[in-house]
Amino acid sequence: MSKGRVSKEEQERRIKLLIGFIFTFKYADRRQLEMFIRTVINMTYTRRLIAYCLRKGYINDYWECLYKTKIYYLTKKGLDFIDAEECFAKDYRFEKSSLGTITFNQHNLAIETYLQLQKRFNITDWFCAWMLRIGKHRRVSVPDSIIVIQHNRAVALEIETQFKKLSEIRQMVDRYRYYIEKNPQYNAVLMVVEYKAVYESIKKKLFHLAPIFCSRVFILADLEMFKQGRCFYANEVRSLEEAFNLLREGRNGQAIQS
Known about the structure:
Structural class: alpha+beta
Radius of gyration: 19 Å
Low-confidence stretches: 251-258
CATH architecture of the largest domain: 3-Layer(aba) Sandwich
């Protein structure tokens, strides 16, 4: 893309896309913003858009000493800019104190998942956990995100960075059995696991508890697999595209067996 002038409408579109990205995930670091601008907005010169949004007061930044990176978040002016498009705009809050180590790692993995999926699929909507918690008790379990993807499939995203006890996996399976079979809200669960050893442990426990259900509902991948566009679904390692196509075909009117 050239450095030349763009129309007012095009510039506004780019600003809204960037602000919308930060809004969805509450905050982002510099690398994530640049990846989003290259991947989704299709701009080569990423720094210009970030600098423009900072200069106009749509976003703000600060240096996070713990993680040695700049964090970018929305200002009131930025929220006002997208208020008409975002129904949760009045619920947006960014607090520096919320950047705990586990939370920060999960947040980064969620953004990595988003960017990888954007390369392969048409994502209609993405709702992060902070949106899903609005109006709910803080102890109510919600997915890390809900992704509305091609053919209007609602996929719950689970980001895992640590080993899980068998009892925790059982609770997860029971919860998704309810929300997929008895009170349908999702079509599948995409689980992205940061480390290979954690991935193998969780997969073993899932398929020990409910092998048929998990083979039809859970799309599993460790981070390296996911970056390569691969996952474990329906008892095989396959491409993400193949897994989502099989999911679409297998869920047409067929009940999931226990």
